[in-house]
Amino acid sequence: MTPAGHVVEPLLSDAGLWMYRFIEELYPICRSITGEGVRETLRCIRSHIPLEVHEVPSGAIAFDWTVPKEWNIRDAYIRNAAGERVVDFRKSNLHVLNYSIPFRGRVPLKTMREHLFTLPDQPDLIPYRTTYYKENWGFCVSQHQADALQEPEYEVCIDADLKDGSLTYGECFIPGSTDQEMLFSCHICHPSLCNDNLSGIALTTWLARHLCARKSKYSYRFLFLPGTIGAIVWLSRNENIISKIRHGLVAASVGDPGKATYKKSRRGNAEIDRAVLHVLRTRGPEFSVKEFSPYGYDERQYCSPGFDLPVGSLARTPHGEYPEYHTSADNLDFVKPACLADSLSICLEVIEVLEANETYVNLYPKCEPQLGKRGLYRGYPDAGTREMALLWVLNMSDGNHSLLEIAERSGVAFRKLRNAADLLLEHGLLTGVGNERTSEGGGDK
Ligand code: ZN
Fold first, then answer.
1. Is 154 found in the same domain as 299?
2. Residue 351 reports pLDDT greater than 80
3. Which residue, 18, 24, 161, 299, has most beta carbons within 10 Å?
4. Could you tell me the distance, in angstroms and rounded to a whole number, from the CA of residue 25 to the centre of ligand 1?
5. 2-6, 108-112, 204-208: which range is least confident on average?
6. Are residues 110 and 49 in the same domain?
7. Is residue 383 predicted with pLDDT exceeding 80?
8. End of a domain among 135, 163, 191?
9. Quick one: 178 and 298 in the same domain?
10. What is the 425 CA–ligand 1 centroid distance (Å)?
11. What is the CATH number of the domain that holds 122?
12. Percent of the chain residues past pLDDT 70, beyond the cut
């Protein structure tokens, strides 16, 4: 059982393990918003799905932003007088302030302390900190490690490069039978952090791999981007695609044991918002919903007013609301295969709803068509029975209500309404919007 109380089907249980193993593979890589760590991560993703890797040079302009210099790190340490590494990048890549400028020298203790970042309230944990847009050097250490530094001076080394290069991102496009698109986006810029970062990458990769192998109505676009700057760069280079994006989801923090959380798009009532809410409600009471706010992950770029795309965000416990967030405790013990699988199954159900959501016209709209003589009426229509689903679809199908809207209004699960619509189509009682004139079933109109 998953935290949401669902029995994980065998496919999903395999998928949960697959995603967890992928997280294990990616965990040791030191990522940042640019550099070799991002490229290596994209190479791992490309071993599973067709991925186009883009390089955008430092200094390139993207709306109000400029692509920063490329950062690469080889080693970093603080050494005591005995020559021992008391803080060692090789033990945890969180130890170096991400995007630190290169630095070497002997540093008095007082200065050393000005370049240390700790979590006094969680003294065993190493914080994750960055200095992307302000040049600085530093180390992130546990409070215990910081307290243990008592010698008058230390030897410091940050063996890194911060120079012109490029920003790297990955894009996987899977064409469907229409050019209307669904977008999935995840960030790829955090170092060894499992839930905030790797869980989203693993889920998005699995989904892309899955959708490569099936036919779909929508075309699917999967973006693997360094947070914020990556989404801004992608949007600035793909304005011609924007009008095709019908739905989108940002996936982040999808592997922890908390309940699922959906953050609505800026529009608040887009089809993606309604589809996710319908799926969550149908699955059970354990979920939460947040209204849009202009903070969080890359949904804030997709939902900026110049784009206002229908892109929501799926997580479990929201960022910043769990003690492991942005610390060394967001590790391989914190994410669980069953929780990853539960998040994935929500995405699969949402895709199923969006793929199958259509609007129909009842071809016998004057009173109810006689279902009994067609063998469609087998008993008293209790709520939720097949008969009730047939009656709802017939009544609401006036060309203005999609199956998802009927599901919301009736409380009948989308899948039951979809099956009912298929049955009604088979019996010539229903037709797709725009097909009324060509249909032969409209005898009693
Ligand atoms: Zn983060």
1. no
2. yes
3. 299
4. 19
5. 2-6
6. no
7. no
8. 163
9. yes
10. 48
11. 3.50.30.90
12. 94
Mean pLDDT of the chain: 94
Kindly give the distance from the C-alpha atom of residue 300 to the centroid of ligand 1, in angstroms, as a whole number: 14
**Cα 221 to middle of ligand 1, angstroms:** 22
Which of 351, 414, 32, 415 lies closest to 203, judged by CA?
351
Q: What is the pLDDT of residue 52?
A: 98
Task: Please give the pLDDT value at position 375.
Answer: 87
| Structural domain for 184, as ranges | 10-68+168-355
Q: Does 392 score more than 80 pLDDT?
A: yes
Ligand 1: centre distance to CA 122 (Å): 18
CATH number at residue 364: 1.10.10.10
Would you state the pLDDT for residue 95? 98
Looking at the structure, tell me whether residues 133 and 197 fall in a common domain: no
Distance 197 CA to ligand 1 centre (A): 7
> Rounded to whole angstroms, what are the CA distances from 110 to 152, 159, 343, 413?
8, 22, 47, 64
Does residue 167 have a pLDDT over 80? yes
Residue 185 lies in a domain: yes
Burial class for 285, CB neighbours closer than 10 Å (0-12, 13-18, 19+): exposed
CA of 319 to the centre of ligand 1 (A): 7
Ligand 1 center from residue 301 Cα (angstroms): 15
Report yes or no on 59 lying in a domain. Answer: yes
Distance 196 CA to ligand 1 centre (A): 5
Are 260 and 310 found together in one domain? yes
Where residue 303 sits, what CATH number does that domain have?
3.40.630.10
User: pTM here?
Assistant: 0.93
Residue found under tokens 């209307």: 180
Indicate the angle between helix axes 271-283 and 403-410, nearest 10 degrees: 40
Q: At how many degrees (to 10) do helices 337-356 and 199-212 cross?
A: 50
Ligand 1 midpoint to CA 360 (Å):
43
**Residues surrounding ion ligand 1 at CB below 5 Å:** 196
Rounded to the nearest angstrom, the distance between the alpha carbon of 284 and the centre of ligand 1 is 29
Per the CB < 8 A criterion, the answer to whether 219 and 154 are in contact is no
DSSP letter string, 46-58: HTTS--EEEEEET
